[in-house]
Amino acid sequence: MAPIAALPGTPDLKKRLAPLFSPPREPILTEVPELGYLMIDGKGAPDEGAEYPTTDFQKAFAALFPAVYTMKFRLKRDGLIMPIMPLEALWFTGEDEAFDMNVAPERWGWRVLMIVSDDVTPQVFDDAVAEVRRKKGDSEMLNRLRFERWREGRSAQIMHVGPYSDERPTIEQLHAFIAEQGLRPRGAHHEIYLGDPRRADPAKLKTVLRQPVSES
Q: Over the stretch 91-149, which tens digit does the pLDDT of each residue have?
């Protein structure tokens, strides 16, 4: 279980972090390094079947894109490459950010995420948000958007293929693996969305399911 380290001469963030986005369909352990993220927090279940943003969860995802593309083009002027990374979300139901699938979805807390390159600084972020605000006006989600560096650390993860509503058996498989390793879940349930549910066949959707772990 080697950590994902920076690769000299490799500017493509997607290439450097590829192992984090391509686990097998059997659980494995990995180490997630400190990374920069765009984040928005909220509460409530997503509306998976809606074509347009109708819930705060969907609106939060939609709010990430103007900011991240503004950063991308700002860095490009300086000759720096920043790919657009997959959308991600943390899900939690308790004060310690643990996740209980038996809690009603409307009571779920969430944090939408998108990784940005190490070239994004607080100043780059602030300038991008100010530019989005000038062009598109103010919004609740834009005001809730923040930039933060976060290290998830040692985690177990697995690839789920199929509808989001069918994730429970895969999550249970992931947690059984964690227990078999003599570890315990730590923090929020993490999902990384590799497909677009508005366009993809639900049976073929790919989602990385990740659970940070610690020693029992």
A: 999 877 888 888 888 888 999 999 999 999 999 999 999 999 999 988 899 999 999 99
Q: Determine which helix (DSSP H) or strand (DSSP E) holds 154, and give its type and residue range.
A: strand 146-161
- 13 neighbors 83 (Cβ within 8 angstroms): yes
What is the Cα gyration radius of the chain? Answer: 17
- For the chain, which domains are there? 13-215 (3.20.80.10)
Q: What is the pTM for the complete model shown?
A: 0.88
* C-alpha to C-alpha distances, 195 to 10, 18, 154, nearest whole angstrom: 25, 15, 25
Q: Exposure of 65 by Cβ count < 10 A (0-12 exposed, 13-18 middle, 19+ buried)?
A: middle
Contact 19, 2 (CB under 8 A): no
> In whole angstroms, what is the distance from residue 9 CA to residue 47 CA?
41
How many Å apart are CA 66 and CA 136, to the nearest integer? Answer: 9
Look at residues 61, 57, 83, 86 and name the one whose alpha carbon lies nearest to residue 71: 83
